[in-house]
Known about the structure:
The protein is of the alpha/beta class. It contains 13 helices and twelve strands.
Amino acid sequence: MTGQNPVFIPGPTNIPDRLRYAMSIQTTDHRAPDFVELLAPVLEDVKKVFKTRNGKVITFPSSGTGGWEAAITNTLSPGDKILVARYGMFSHRWIDMCQRHNLDVEIIECEWGSGAPAALFGERLEADKNHDIKAVLVTHNETATGVRSDVGAVRKAIDASSHPAMLYVDCVSSLASMDFRMDEWGVDLAVSGSQKGFMLATGMAIVGVSEKALEACKTATCPRCFFDFGDMAGANANGGFPYTPPLQIMYGLRESLKMLFEEGLDNVFARHFRIAEGVRAAVRAWDMRLCAVSPELYSDTVSAIYVPDGFNSDVLANHVFDAYGVSFGVGLGEMAGRAFRIGHLGSLTDVMALSGLAAIEMAMKDLNYPIELGSGVSAAQEYYRATTGVAQSKAA
């Protein structure tokens, strides 16, 4: 008998049957009058996940990378200065995109495994007396290293310096899995996608846009066409789309939002924290360490784990797939060959997490890792047994 095992990569994530069925629909006419009955409520409900009342949600047929491009091209002009820290592969890729768009990118280099350096941002903004810096870019959840940054602290640093810079946040692998507070944190552009916390197929960039960012669109001169906020928002306001929309994903998103609200967002966040804590208990039992340098940085959606000296993490990830048919994340950038990643977000339970821990343990034992078979699974089991039915959340 063959079948699909759960994936333990940080995205795309497992798609529950309820959402697969919701996306399995016949083609409908997106120019028909009833399209607005699908579009308008979805856009309004996504605002609840971003936790914004004042912002607008704009979507594009794309992945999160398209959302990045939309964010910078709609609000900035060639030559504009931005401030960004590099502390993982995805912050690095955002930097690369900004440089390709001829922005003046000031980079703060950080250790991979650390988070957004709010204090250093504050110092640099304080020194920028002419307010040349137009935006600060932050990766909320660095998927390559399993690090969650404190976006609220970055906003406080910006405010303390009395600087008008906008705040852009990549929340692709955190939104709908970990708490995100767009209004409270003063986020001007928040970029996410359909394929992670929303548990859908890849194909929709989801961007939260503040009123300040919409105002910046009026003077920004970076070229854009497909990703034009004005075209999309104008069409949406009239109940339409400026070109062909990803209808199947829209129907899926409507159902995904129902699932998230039925569980309750606080319960969703607590579930992710609990599953992640079980994984972290397993890592300790293996006598291994996370890439994240301190507990306050631990991500609740992905754990990046260093392998012991003398072992190659890519060999481990390939072996567990070949031998047991289960996918784990490989190391990216500076983590290549040094760390593997366990994605624990989206459609996942503690029982599913245990199956992943058992599979990676078998693979490590096959490759003569210095672990005791069952040690990580047992540690996670003890944690899950002790916390069954107990609401827990790092954000609480």
